[in-house]
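Extended Data, panel c. Modelled sequence:
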Amino acid sequence: MSLEQDLAKIEYALGLAREKAETFTSGRIEAELKAGGDPVTAADIEINSVLQETLVEDGDGWLSEETVDDLVRLEKHRVWIVDPVDGTREFVAGIDEWCISVALAEGGKVVAAGICSPSTDQLYLGSIETGVTLNGKAASTTDRTELEGATVLASRSEVNRGQWDRFTDGPLEVIPMGSVAYKLARVSAGLADATFTLVPKNEWDIAAGTLLVEAAGGKVLEKNGDGLVFNREKTLITGLIASGTAFFDPLSELIAG
């Protein structure tokens, strides 16, 4: 399958997933707690099924937050990395900061991805070869170089825990927001200058968004400075920094300081 076909397939799958999501009402849906304490809803489960049935073909691997992990995926060259509802807490609370995230990795590298935000009517699609589009129009990261006045999207839960206190009185404009996938998508389209996480994230949280930022001309590294590799046995990433290329070094220095 060609890259263009993969992107078309992702777009089609996200369209079906959006239709399923719209059968539920954000802010009026009950959630249960999974073993680790994270919430899950019927929407998460049903959207997950739609995506798996639409995307996976013979020989493909599958990694999703809402599917028991099958390590057979480690033997696969092509692996779908999916979060059917990233930002479930926001979805349950009726906050328009959740999304559906789909990435295709080949040999540990994401090659195509899409993120759909039904509440804001936004569809982000991209690959390194084709770049990124937002609702069909070409998009790119910002070309900011200075810290002063830069808009940085922060995890709302991290902000509430006080983990961003040292940044709130500095040069950055810190904007709390749910769903790390949605934050990465917005950075890829130049709707914010950067985002970074102070706590670990799973591959399904960041795979699609990481590809979109890089495809849009930006830079993403794991918090420890390593490049990101996907479809690993242990799916937890230490954290990440994502921004336009020119802004990455000054932002990294501020975080390290």
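The domain at 3-136 is CATH 3.30.540.10 (Fructose-1,6-Bisphosphatase; Chain A, domain 1). This feature is highlighted in the accompanying rendering.
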